[in-house]
């Protein structure tokens, strides 16, 4: 029997620092629990609390992603890109504020769009050297997991 490949043992994220990989993947647990939990009838009344808990968690995470931009702006001495990073740093928080005032289907839709848009911006920033190269694969995996859970929650909100 051969040893597992390094790619598999590192969750296909070998270039990501171990602590960032661990914390990022653990951060998907609330998304996964809520995205799956709303469909599990034996959870009883807890199922009905999960969408609001997921909304609160998604808003916190989306706003947190803006902090990455703020950090990039602090490390960047180019006034043109610094201003862009600072504007992109506050935008997720403002979007999240609006999200909290919407009915659940619209809130989940806006969060899905926000997570995807932020991932595109982050992938672009890694290509431009504004963010560490290892951040790209991590963001893609984490965004995929978060968006999958939010889609599940959106479908549940539209059908129940």
Descriptive account of the structure:
This protein is mainly α and 160 residues long. It is built from six helices and no strands. The protein has helices at 6-9, 18-37, 46-75, 79-99, 104-127, 135-159. The longest helix is centred in the middle third of the chain and has 30 residues, at 46-75. The chain is globular, with a radius of gyration of 17 Å. Residues 1-11 have low confidence and may be disordered.
Secondary structural class: mainly alpha
Number of separate strands: 0
Q: What's the mean pLDDT score? A: 89
> Which sheet architecture does the biggest sheet show?
none
Query: What sort of overall outline do the alpha carbons produce when their principal axes are compared?
Result: globular
Strand content: under 5%
Radius of gyration over all CA atoms, rounded: 17 Å
Query: Secondary-structure element sequence?
Result: HHHHHH
What is the count of helical runs? 6
Which regions have little confidence, pLDDT < 50, spanning 5+ residues?
1-11
Distance between the termini: 48 Å
**Percentage of residues assigned to helices:** over 70%
What is this structure's SSE topology?
Elements: H1 6-9, H2 18-37, H3 46-75, H4 79-99, H5 104-127, H6 135-159
Helix pairs in contact: 2-3, 2-6, 3-4, 3-5, 4-5, 5-6
Properties at a glance:
160 residues, mainly alpha, 6 helices, disordered N terminus
At a glance:
Helix content is 78%, strand content 0%.
